[in-house]
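Researcher: Let's continue the batch. This sequence belongs to Cytochrome c domain-containing protein, and it's 653 residues. Same format as the previous ones, please.
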Amino acid sequence: MAWPLRIIVISAVAAGAVIAVSAVARVSYAPMPDEGDLLNPGRYPLQTAYDILGRRVARDEAERLKATPEGRNDLSAEKGAVAIDDALVKRGRDAFYRETFGNEVFLSDVMGMLDGGVTPYEVARAILLLGGAGTTNLQVRMARDVTVGDRVWKAGELVPTGLDVPRGSAFILGIRTFYDRGRLRMGITCALCHAAFDPASGKVVEGAPNTDLNAGLLMALASNATAYFMHGSADPSAHPGDPSRSVTTEEGGRAPLPDRAAFEAAAKVEVASWPAGSFDSSADRETNPTSIPSSFSAYAEPYSWSGRAGVGPFKGLSALNNNVHAANSDTTQQTQAAKTLFGLDPQVYLGMVLQGAAAPSLHYDPASGKRPTEVLEAADPTPGTPGLNSYAVLPSFPATNYMTDNGLLASVPGEPANYANNAMSAFQNLLRAPDVSADAERVKRGRAVFERVGCAGCHAGPALSNNRVIPVEEIGTQPSRARSTVRMEARLAPSAVFATDTPFPLPPDPKLVPIPMEGDALKQLQLAWAHAGTRGGYKVQNLVGLAWSAPYLHDSGVAVGPDAERQIGVPGTLDAGIAPDPTNSLRALVDRGLRARVVAANAGSQKARTARVTGEGHSYWADAAAGVSGTEQSDLVAYLLSVNALTEPVPVP
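Model: Same format as before. Here are the C-alpha cells for Cytochrome c domain-containing protein:
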C-alpha cells in the first residue's frame, strides 16, 4: 500500500475508534522501534546480577552471596538491592519510549504546548507531508502569529522543531499522544531527547542525543511559557501587575501577580535562547541550558554535566532519570519549596505558573477568590501528592537530598516505587553506540597522541572517564550551571530511597533505605552540588559515542560546521540550522586558535549570551603550540570519533 493511502486508512480507522470511545475512554500511543529499525541493535552482555545502591554485583558473586543468610540479606530489597534480569531490561526499554509518569497534564493543560503556535493539526499535516521518509527535524507550519522577543513567528511559517520521525512512522519519536474524553494531550518520554533518527541509514540510534531538538523554541511558542520561568532569568519583579490581581499568601497577606502578558513575553525570550539540542533542567532562576547527553551510560558515573546524580541505584543513573520526571516535567511540584528555592511565597509562585494555564480547570484567576493551591488540588489527577505527575513521596519532601531534588520519586501505579527509573537505568547501561568504520592504524596513532598530551590523565577507565568532578575553577567552563543547586543546601535531608519491593501507591509505613555517604564520595557530591562552601564543578565526561554528540562542552559552545571557515560557534551552526560537524568541532575542542574563533562568535550573539553559551574552558590543547602537528591532531580526532563502546572488558549491568 502506498504511504499516503496507508496513512489515510490508518487515520480513518483511528478516528473511528476515537469517536467510538470518546465519551468514556482514555487512549494513548507512543512509537517504539523494532530491533530491525535500529542502527545499534547490539547490546553489552547482561553480566551484572544486582545493583545495591550503586554497587555492582556480578553473577558469580551473587551466587556466592545467596549461599549464606548474610549474603541473602545483602541482596534483599530492604538493603536497596535491585535484581537485574531480562524482565527489568524489557520494562526499562518500554519505559524509555513510552513512560510519561503523567507529564502530559502539565505540558498540555498548564504549559499549553498544543495551544500556541504549534497545533496538533499542523503537526499531523507535517508528518503526512513526509510521505513516510522520516526526518530529524520535522518542519511544522505555524497556526497563528506568536511574538518571541523581536521575532514574530508568522502563521504559515515553518518551525524547525528538531522532532524526529522514524522512516515509515506516523508518530514522533519520544512523544506519547493521549486522547482523554474529548481532550488531546501530549507527554514526553526519555526517547524524545535520548534517541535519534539517522537519515543516512534510515534507522534509529538508541541512546544518541537528539542534537537538533528545539525544545526551548517549542516552549516559547506554547501559550504559557511562564510555567517554566524558574528555569530562566526572567524576573517577575520587573513586570509589576495590577494590584487587583493579587493572591492570598501563605501568611494571609495579599501579593500581586506579575503582569501576565509582560512576564510571558520575558519568559519566552529566555527559553527561546536555548541552542537546539539543549535543555535547561536546573530550576535556579538563571538561563543556563546544557547539551543533551547521550544515554551510552555504562561506567559513565556520576551523571549530569555537574555530576550531581552520583548516589543511589545504578551509581546515580536512576537519580538522573528521576530528575527528568520528578522535577523537570512538572513545575507545580516545586510549590512547597518555592520560598527556599526562589524566594517566592508558594501561593504567589503557583499563581504565576497557573495564571496562563491552557486548560480552564487549571487556569488561575485571582477574581475567583480561591488560592492557587485550591485550583491545583481540584484538578489534580494524582490527589494526595504534590504536583500533577505520579510520585512516591519520601517523608523528607519537599527537602532536597542527594538522590532527589525534592523528595519525590516518579513511579507507576501497580509496580514498585521507583521501579521504572531503575529499569531504564538497567536498559541504558546496555546501550552502545553504532559501529564505526575507521582506519585501525590511524586510530592507533591517535590513541598515542591522546596519551602523550595527557588526555588519559582524566579520560581513563572503561568509558574513558575517571568518574570525578573537577572544580569549576580548574575546568574553566561557564560557571553558572555549576552553582545551580547551591540554594538546595538550605533545606537538605539525609539521602534515602524506598525498599525496592515497596508497592506504589505507597503503604501507610513504607520501609526506607538510607544511602550511605562519607569521605571522598561525600566531598565529590558536595562539589557537584556547589555545597559545603564550594563553587561547584563539572564531571569528567565519558567519551563513548562522541561521533553522535556534537557540539561539545556542557553549554554546547564548541560547535563548528562542515565549513570550518564560516560555520563557527553556535550562531554559525545550530542557530543557522546547520548541524555541527563532529570532526571540526572536536578539532576546535583541542585547538586553541580555532577555539578562539568559536568563543568570539558565541560572544557576538545576543541569543548565546542570554543562554550563557560561551564555549570557554577545558583548556587542554593538542595543537602546534603543544607540539602536536596537524596530522597528529587529525589522528587524535579520528581516535576520539572511533570510540563506540567500552574500552575494557568489564562486567556491565
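Researcher: Any comment?
Model: Residues 3-39+119-160+162-213 form one domain.
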